[in-house]
Design a protein that fits this description.
heterodimer, A: two-stranded antiparallel ribbon, two-stranded antiparallel ribbon, B: globular
Chain lengths: ~700, ~325
């Protein structure tokens, strides 16, 4: 009689441990959906419209499944991490395994937050122009890319990870070459391929070194932090940091980024900038910061230094770009820098065992990962809409677009304000948190180096933010305001709703993530417990950010209150200036006595000229002015002005390396002469040598 | 009524009072500096209430807007004004607590002012006038250079007090009194330079000129008229008063009231007015004794400020 309730209690217990949502089935479902979508897309390739809907709507559906899985993982009370097999080939014993924890869930959410709007946008976007002919290719590639990134985030062993990583690279390269008729697109794809493989090479070397030391390929063993010791650890850090750094676009490994991102179709650029770079960040967090044992101080310093360099150089180069997609691509380098600044501050704090400060730094960087995905995705979609409407990427040829494309303009403005870290939008919240990491680190650190490093980091962040604001006043103002500068801009039309709704969604997210930073921190709290060395953090309020390590709060921010105050201020301003029944008189702008025309407007080049002069040590600008005239240079009929900044890294870092590689390749011609006999000889020599080695060992 | 709600209402009420107070005082400060400057040049100068007359006149006048402008041109002055007004609620003035100090500290203040600047600089590009672009470009350039120095200067005071919240900062400064610690002196000097730059004073910008090659802030306002112009002028004045009040809070908090007793408040009002007056004299003298710098010499000035802030930080913490 007693056994009955006991047994049923045990069964209940059993049921409780089993019934919680199993992430594995969600992931499998998402992958299966994607494979089916790719197949259907390719089957319907001849019917462009059906193909678009199947490919992209299907992709959005699969992303929803992934997002739900990740959200379920984060909302589960305990036991966030889960692992198992995704695919098993019984005959060979070969398997793909997954190991999903809080960090994976966070990056999956970041990915899905962006990939769903992008997929919806793409349904409209790929209907136009030359892209329509390549719908099937693009949709299949898009699905493959998103699926590969998902797999990267959940991979449970080195083999699965490297497979997904390579698939991700190849899918991205394929998408960059969508419009392969253009020579510079092919060149960009090639550059991307070469550098990515350099990075993959580093990763393979790193993972194999770890595997040979531990005798396993599972991440649970490899990244337990107990595999490598001593200088080996530093070597592995360097390998992984270079490998992941190339993917993340850290200066000086960034040269592929400003070429490849603009070359891809805009919705793909949004995905590449918003999420693909974050795969590199994911790797750096997973392996470099938390997978090789407690980070040493020098690693943190390297991450902060390169993060600061990326942030400042990224925004400085962005200021000089007048191609809107290149400008956004350089801003991605800047934001990766900001993400690394937070992470680096966390790593420094970890190195001297201050988990609670490290928590702030790592949380700041992961928050910025999400924010950057949202606002950069929004900006790229806006840029794509504008480029589609005008047929050019040059800011100097836009102008006056706000009147012609009011909704795109509004969304772009919100994105521009978010990336400039203006309150109450989301960029402000994560940069605020990054500042806190530096200030706390500075205040609490026992390390003299941190006392020097952290204020510099804070100043660099302040400079970056302010320069970004300048850059986006330019990007928005010159593109969307005043008079249209060309006929193409004058004839621009607003995009269809299917392209506007995703932008509105992302713009709303910019505002929501900024107004409820505490909600994001709550989620991040659950993410960060899965990382070693970080203590659980007390629950934050929904609407505010507050930072305290013992005792009183150091600083806090409640964006809702601020937003209310701002709204009141706008109300007062409107009341002061409103007078009933009188509408403003319209008059032409005073054109200095001449007629106002697009030629007299301020240009993007002129706008950024003061900064070019001030930072000329970095830009090394050159300019050439020619006066064109038949009779005499004193009576010019036209003036040709050419100005450019020196591509320092391309010319002085990669130039010599490239020449060296070519020279070595040239000298290798001696052994690769095209003679079959020689090649057979090499094979025989190799076999003999291997046999000798085996014999020697035995 | 729940205590939370009544607290919030009280805070908003105080915030409104303080905003109205600073809005009321700001035109006075602007005219005062103009007047003192005129006296130093042996001129009569405007009457003390001229700032109010100007605002009243502008608010009554007709609004004329450019045909090429869009809603951004209309939104610019309003957001600029709202940013300045909401910034006033984050800074303690008479009492050693800011009305909305629960909303955020120094970083939010800097962010708010950046929001106002962004709005105005964007709106200035909307008319298609080359002057608007020129002003916008220069204003954003100088702000970008000034931002790191401003942050470092504020961090020095904030880290010394152990908080970045302005109310708590003022209370801590009040507790410790004026120490004339070398780091305070250096940080003050650094921040004073930044305040000159951010409020568009000589040697960075000349508020009295409309000379096309040199103007910065004024160039952004050329196309504004009537109430729109009034909002911008008023907000600029508030911003200047706010920066001076910030310097007062951080470095010479003597006389600030710790409670809302009428006597203490009256004393605090006198003390605050006196301290701001002293700073206004300093601004006037700097304006009168210096020539405006070429735009490309401004980075040198700002880097002096950056250097001072670094030195202050070094002296304080190493």
């Amino acid at each position: 009689m007693v056994a009955g309730p006991m047994a049923s209690g045990a069964a209940l217990q059993e049921a409780r441990t089993v019934t919680p949502f199993d992430p594995g089935s969600g992931l499998r479902l998402a992958i299966a959906l994607r494979v089916a979508v790719v197949a259907l897309t390719l089957l319907s390739a001849r019917r462009s419209s059906a193909c678009r809907w199947v490919g992209f709507a299907g992709s959005a559906l699969a992303s929803i499944v992934t997002a739900a899985t990740a959200a379920a993982m984060l909302s589960a009370e305990a036991g966030i991490s889960s692992h198992g097999e995704l695919f098993l080939h019984r005959a060979s014993g070969f398997s793909f395994t997954y190991a999903a924890d809080g960090l994976s869930a966070w990056f999956l959410i970041v990915l899905s937050t962006l990939s769903i709007p992008i997929a919806i946008f793409s349904i409209g976007y790929f209907a136009h122009g030359p892209l329509a002919r390549r719908t099937a290719f693009s949709a299949a590639g898009f699905n493959a890319l998103v699926g590969a990134v998902e797999l990267v985030f959940v991979a449970g062993d080195a083999i699965t990870f490297l497979f997904a990583w390579e698939l991700m690279t190849l899918a991205a390269v394929a998408l960059v070459t969508t419009e392969h008729e253009e020579g510079d697109h092919r060149r960009a794809a090639f550059l991307y391929l070469v550098l990515s493989h350099l990075g993959t090479g580093c990763l393979i070397a790193g993972f194999f070194a770890l595997a040979s030391m531990s005798g396993s390929v599972s991440f649970a063993t490899l990244l337990s932090g107990e595999v490598a010791r001593g200088p080996m650890r530093d070597g592995l850090f360097a390998l992984f940091f270079i490998g992941f750094g190339i993917k993340a676009g850290i200066v000086p490994l960034h040269v592929w980024l400003p070429e490849a991102h603009p070359a891809a179709p805009s919705s793909i650029s949004a995905l590449m900038s918003g999420v693909l770079l974050k795969a590199g960040i994911y790797g750096i967090v997973r392996v470099c910061a938390f997978g090789l044992g407690t980070p040493s101080l020098s690693w943190g310093v390297i991450v902060i230094a390169l993060g600061g360099l990326s942030a400042v150089l990224g925004v400085l180069y962005a200021l000089m770009q007048h191609d809107i997609k290149r400008l956004l691509a350089y801003h991605s380098i800047e934001n990766i820098g900001i993400i690394l600044l937070g992470l680096g501050a966390g790593m420094v704090a970890l190195s001297y065992g201050r988990g609670e400060i490290a928590w702030i730094g790592v949380a700041a960087s992961l928050y910025h990962v999400l924010n950057h995905a949202v606002f950069k995705g929004l900006l790229f979609l806006g840029a794509g809409t504008v480029v589609m409407a005008t047929g050019t990427r040059q800011i100097e040829q836009f102008g006056g677009l706000l009147r012609r494309m009011p909704w795109t303009g509004l969304c772009f403005l919100i994105g521009a304000m978010a990336i400039s870290a203006l309150p109450p939008l989301n960029g402000f919240a994560s940069e605020w948190l990054t500042f806190q990491a530096f200030l706390f680190g500075f205040r609490e650190s026992p390390e003299p180096l941190a006392h020097f490093l952290f204020p510099v980091g804070g100043a660099v962040l302040a400079l970056t933010t302010a320069l970004a604001a300048a850059c986006f006043v330019k990007a928005f103002g010159i593109s969307f305001l005043a008079l249209p500068r060309t006929a193409a801009a004058a004839g621009a039309r607003e995009a269809p709703p299917i392209m506007l709704i995703p932008q509105a969604l992302l713009a709303a997210l910019c505002l929501g993530l900024g107004l409820f930073p505490g909600g994001v921190l709550k989620a991040l709290g659950r993410v960060l417990v899965s990382l070693p060395g970080l203590p659980p953090q007390a629950d934050a309020a929904w609407n505010g950010l507050g930072m305290a390590t013992g005792g009183a709060a150091f600083d806090y921010v409640v964006p809702m209150v601020f937003a209310a105050a701002l709204a009141c201020g706008i109300g007062v301003a409107a009341a002061l200036s409103a007078r009933s029944g009188v509408s403003a008189r319209r008059a032409p702008t005073w054109g200095c006595g001449g007629e106002l025309s697009p030629q007299t407007e301020y240009t993007a080049t002129a706008f950024s000229k003061p900064l070019m002069m001030i930072f000329q040590a970095i830009y090394r600008p050159t300019r050439r002015v020619e006066s064109l005239g038949d009779v005499s240079p004193y009576f010019p009929q036209g003036v040709r002005y050419h100005s450019e900044i020196e591509p320092t890294f391309e010319r002085h870092v990669y130039g010599p390396v490239l020449r060296g590689v070519l020279r070595v390749a040239d000298s290798l011609k001696v052994i690769q002469a095209g003679s079959l006999h020689a090649y057979l000889g090499y094979v025989i020599a190799l076999v003999v040598w291997l046999m000798l080695v085996v014999w020697w060992r035995a | 009524m729940t205590p939370v709600l009544s607290d919030a209402l009280r805070a908003f009420g105080l915030a409104a009072l303080q905003a109205v107070f600073l809005l009321a005082m700001a035109p006075l400060l602007k005219t005062l500096i103009k007047m003192m400057k005129a006296r130093l040049q042996n001129r009569q100068g405007p009457p003390l209430l001229q700032g109010y007359y100007d605002l009243a006149k502008l608010l009554r006048k007709e609004t004329v807007r450019s045909e090429t402008a869009s809603w951004v041109f209309v939104a610019g002055p309003r957001v600029y004004f709202a940013a300045a007004v909401s910034a006033t609620t984050l800074v303690p003035v008479l009492i050693s607590a800011a009305p909305l100090e629960a909303a955020g500290g120094v970083l939010l203040l800097v962010g708010t002012l950046a929001l106002g600047r962004f709005a105005l600089a964007t709106a200035a590009l909307d008319t298609g006038s080359p002057f608007g672009g020129m002003g916008s470009s220069r204003d954003m350039t100088i702000a970008a250079l000034a931002e790191p120095a401003l942050m470092l200067g504020l961090f020095t005071s904030g880290l010394a007090a152990g908080t970045l919240n302005l109310g708590a900062l003022a209370r801590s400064a009040l507790q410790h009194g004026v120490t004339f610690h070398p780091s305070d002196v250096l940080a003050f000097a650094g921040l004073f330079i930044i305040v000159l730059a951010e409020t568009g004073r000589v040697p960075v910008d000349n508020p009295a000129t409309h000379l096309e090659l040199t103007m910065i802030h004024e160039a952004m306002l050329l196309e504004y008229s009537g109430p729109d112009l009034a909002l911008v002028e008023w907000a600029s004045a508030v911003k200047e008063l706010l920066y001076l009040t910030l310097l007062v809070d951080l470095f010479m908090p003597v006389g600030m009231a710790t409670s809302a007793e009428p006597v203490a408040l009256l004393m605090a009002l006198v003390a605050w007015a006196g301290k701001v007056f002293v700073l206004a004299i300093a601004v006037t003298i700097t304006e009168s004794m210096n020539a405006k710098l070429r735009l490309f010499r401004v980075p040198e000035l700002v880097s002096i400020s950056l250097g001072l802030a670094f030195l202050a930080l070094t002296i304080r913490f190493l």
